[in-house]
């Protein structure tokens, strides 16, 4: 056995071959989504995505991540306030009705904030998929 073979599932690189790095060019070609093509002369950044587009994708993902965290904090705060009001309703029987109403409002606000966080999480995933589509990665939907 003069030449030793390695069988791997994914990285099929021979030892003397190096993987292709990011390619930089002055001309980019793309599709407008309606079957037409365009040619743009601009500096190209990482993964063959124009620098401006790549920065926009990164900015969009970061923005959705930030908003998702704000929604999570809002849900946590509203839940904590609802628990506090529940405790106050038991502790202060004279104003129990008022505390129960405030508890219900806080619980509804918590559900709304949780829904907002879930919505932003979905938007963050969508922005990531858009970036991967622009990079040329393929998504295989089996089911």
UniProtKB/TrEMBL annotation:
Residues 118-135 have a biased composition (Basic and acidic residues). PANTHER family: ABSCISIC STRESS-RIPENING PROTEIN 5. It holds the Pfam family ABA_WDS. Residues 114-143 are annotated as: Disordered. Signal peptide: none annotated. This is Abscisic stress ripening. InterPro entries: ABA_WDS. Belongs to the abscisic acid and water stress-induced protein family.
């Amino acid at each position: 056995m003069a030449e030793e073979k390695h069988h791997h599932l994914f990285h099929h690189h021979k030892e003397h071959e190096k993987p292709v790095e990011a390619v930089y060019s002055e001309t980019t070609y793309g599709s407008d989504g309606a079957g037409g093509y365009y040619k743009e002369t601009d500096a190209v950044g990482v993964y063959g995505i124009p620098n401006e587009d790549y920065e926009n994708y990164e900015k969009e993902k970061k923005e959705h991540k930030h908003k998702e965290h704000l929604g999570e904090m809002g849900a946590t705060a509203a839940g904590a306030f609802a628990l506090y009001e529940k405790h106050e309703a038991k502790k202060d029987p004279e104003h129990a009705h008022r505390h129960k109403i405030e508890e219900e409002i806080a619980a509804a606000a918590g559900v709304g904030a949780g829904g907002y966080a879930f919505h932003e999480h979905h938007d963050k995933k969508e922005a990531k998929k858009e970036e991967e589509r622009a990079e040329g990665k393929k998504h295989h939907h089996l089911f």
